[in-house]
Design brief:
3 helices, single chain, four-stranded antiparallel sheet, 137 residues, alpha+beta, 8 strands
C-alpha cells in the first residue's frame, strides 16, 4: 500500500496509454496496461505491435504487478481527475488480484485482467537499449 498524488498517477497513465493496441489491431493477450510496483517506483507499461512505453513515478510501496484492462484504466483515469491524494492497495480476494484506489470515503476497485499473459517489459526494454549501444545499430 502507498499514497500518491492523483496527478502523478494520472500522468504515468497518460504517458503510457497512447501506446496501447488500437481497435483495428489484434491485441491477443496484451490488451491491458500493466501497473508494476517496485520498492521505489510505480511503472505504467503499455505496448502495441510496434511500441513499448514505460512511465514511472516515485512511490514507497510493496512489490507487485497487475495488468489492468483498458476500460478499467480509462475509468481509473477519469476518477483521478476529481481526486487529490490516493491510497493504492494491491489485494487478493477470492484468489483474484484487485487494485483498490481510495481517497477519503471514495473508492474505486479494479480487477487485474486475468486474460493477460506476463509481459517481460524489462527484458524487452533492455534488448532495445542494448541494440542502440551496438556500433551497427
Amino acid at each position: 500500500m502507498f499514497t500518491i498524488k492523483a496527478r502523478d498517477l494520472a500522468a504515468i497513465l497518460d504517458q503510457a496509454a497512447p501506446h496501447r493496441f488500437q481497435a483495428d489491431e489484434d491485441p491477443n493477450d496484451l490488451a491491458a496496461l500493466i501497473l508494476d510496483c517496485t520498492p521505489g517506483h510505480l511503472h505504467a507499461v503499455a505496448c502495441s505491435d510496434r511500441t513499448l512505453a514505460v512511465a514511472r513515478t516515485p512511490v514507497a510501496g510493496d512489490v507487485w504487478t497487475a495488468p489492468v484492462g483498458y476500460d478499467d484504466a480509462t475509468a481509473l483515469r477519469g476518477w483521478l481527475d476529481s481526486s487529490d491524494t490516493v491510497t493504492v492497495e494491491h489485494v487478493t480476494s477470492g484468489g483474484h488480484q484487485l487494485l483498490r484506489f481510495t481517497e477519503g470515503v471514495a473508492q474505486l476497485t479494479v480487477p487485474a485482467a486475468p486474460h493477460v499473459g506476463r509481459l517481460p517489459w524489462r527484458a524487452l526494454l533492455r534488448l532495445v537499449l542494448d541494440a542502440r549501444e551496438h556500433p551497427l545499430a
